[in-house]
Amino acid sequence: MVDLKGQYKKIQNEIDQAVLKVIREANFINGPEVGEFANGLSAYLHAHVIPCANGTDALQIAMMALDLKPGDEVIVPAFTYVATAEVIGLLQLVPVMVDVDPQSFNMTLANIEKAVTAKTKAIVPVHLFGQCVDMEPILAFAKAKGLYVIEDTAQAIGAEYTFSDGRKMKAGTMGDVGCTSFFPSKNLGCYGDGGAIYTTNEELAIRIKVIANHGQVKKYVHKYIGVNSRLDTLQAAILNIKLKHLDEYCSARATAADKYDALLKDLAGLETPKRVPNSTHVFHQYTMLVKDGKRDALKAHIEAAGIPAMIYYPIPLNEQEAYKAIGKISGSVTVTEELCKNVLSLPIHTELTDAEQELIIGTIRSFYNN
Ligand SMILES: *Cc1c(COP(=O)(O)O)cnc(C)c1O
Fold first, then answer.
1. Is ligand 1 within 6 A of the CB of residue 183?
2. What is the mean pLDDT of the chain?
3. Which residues contact 239 (CB under 8 A, 6 or more apart)?
4. What's the DSSP call for residue 359?
5. Which ligand 1 atom is the nearest neighbour of the CA of 194?
6. Whose Cα sits closest to atom 10 in ligand 1?
7. Could you tell me where the beta strands, DSSP code E, fall in the chain?
8. Is the dihedral of CA 52, 56, 58, 60 positive or negative?
9. Is the CA virtual torsion 277, 279, 282, 285 positive or negative?
């Protein structure tokens, strides 16, 4: 699904030097590269950036920093990666799962409105597969109701949302807090685990930094119960190099997506991914809808040709055993259920060649004898 070795080869000299430098100087924890990366990403996003150990921690730290309390309800999409809801459960909050839009696969204001109760404290829009949730109406609603907005932007780093007045903002910087992951296969991936929290609120940025570091406000002075969640210096050194290529990586993925669109869209048995008008799409995944119950057969056909294809995600959050016990479903989640049955993601990454794509496309077309 990704070609991390091919991507490394193109920047190998720079990466090797940066990694060796950290090792030679033995600056493994909080070395200068970590601050450099936080500043670099901050300049790119126009927000404060607090690096941490992974994207799941980022979500947990965000919710701890907003002082959410056991029993508080947090609205999440039923169609997402489990990490979004996991931290909600860990903090003894209640995940309230809402359905998503069949076109964008993202949560919508209409679904959120129906899920709000007197206990609701926060909304977690997940910018799924690399395209922003329609944030403007959700932000206005959250403001009116006094709800926090925590963006899960693990799949959408670099995506840009355009407001109705023409203002543009990066995914993760529109709500109170944004949370991202640098897991190797993410659009900005490191060579292990990594994550970051964004906010444009200075006070909150300080609190997040303190919570990520044992709640320590001064050496050996602990104001809050925090966590120990750091981005390794080695990972920061790698990310400093890859951050310079982020826009180029996003556009390589978008170009590959355009090619899939152009050469698959005439197939009546498929729906290629929809692009929403007010967000760029950084194509963390290229996710199609396969009609007529043929998803699993098409997947097997693609795999038989030695090509990977993946199902993100096969099971709605509300059907996961762990979340049945603690979560609530708002209304029905029929769109999510349909998506789980019909979605299929094709390989998409920065190193995908025309020849590879033509092979993938030819294999899909042969399934439809077309
Ligand atoms: C990857 C991912 C996460 C978690 O990131 P980790 O770094 O693996 O902890 C959270 N939410 C979504 C939507 C993701 O895709």
1. yes
2. 97
3. 37, 41, 182, 188, 190, 194, 231
4. H
5. 7
6. 83
7. 48-52, 73-77, 94-98, 120-123, 148-152, 160-162, 168-170, 177-181, 195-199, 216-218, 221-222, 270-271, 286-290, 328-329, 343-346
8. negative
9. negative
Residue 140 makes CB contacts below 8 A (sequence gap 6+) with: none
Nearest 5°: phi and psi at 302? -65, -45
Which residue's C-alpha comes closest to atom 14 of ligand 1?
154
Domains of the chain, earliest start first: 4-98+105-243 (3.40.640.10), 246-369 (3.90.1150.10)
Q: Are 100 and 77 in contact (CB under 8 A)?
A: yes
- What is the average per-residue pLDDT within 38-48? 98
Other Cβ atoms within 10 Å of 106 Cβ, number? 24
CB burial of 310-331 (b: ≥16 within 10 Å; e: otherwise) equals: bbbbeebbbbbeebeeebbbbe
The mean-pLDDT minimum among 98-102, 237-241, 320-324 falls in: 320-324
pTM above 0.85, yes or no: yes
Whether residue 181 has its Cβ less than 6 Å from ligand 1? yes
Ligand 1 atom closest to residue 155's alpha carbon, by position in its atom list: 15
Render pLDDT for 151-178 as a digit per residue (tens, 0 to 9): 999 999 999 999 999 999 999 999 999 9
State how far the Cα of 235 lies from the Cα of 232, in Å rounded to an integer: 5
Residue 87, C-beta contacts closer than 8 angstroms, at least 6 positions apart: 56, 59, 60, 63
Q: Which residues contact 188 (CB under 8 A, 6 or more apart)?
A: 157, 158, 180, 182, 239, 242, 243, 246, 249
The number of C-alpha atoms within 13 Å of 325 and in the hemisphere containing its C-beta is 6
Average pLDDT over residues 5-31: 97
158: alpha, beta or left, given left = phi > 0 and alpha = psi -120 to 50?
left
Query: pLDDT tens digits for 309-345?
Result: 999 999 999 999 999 889 999 999 999 999 999 999 9
Which neighbouring-strand residues pair with 77? 98
Give per-residue pLDDT as tens, 182-213. 999 999 999 999 999 999 999 999 999 999 99
Q: Ligand 1 mean position to 180 CA, how many Å?
A: 7
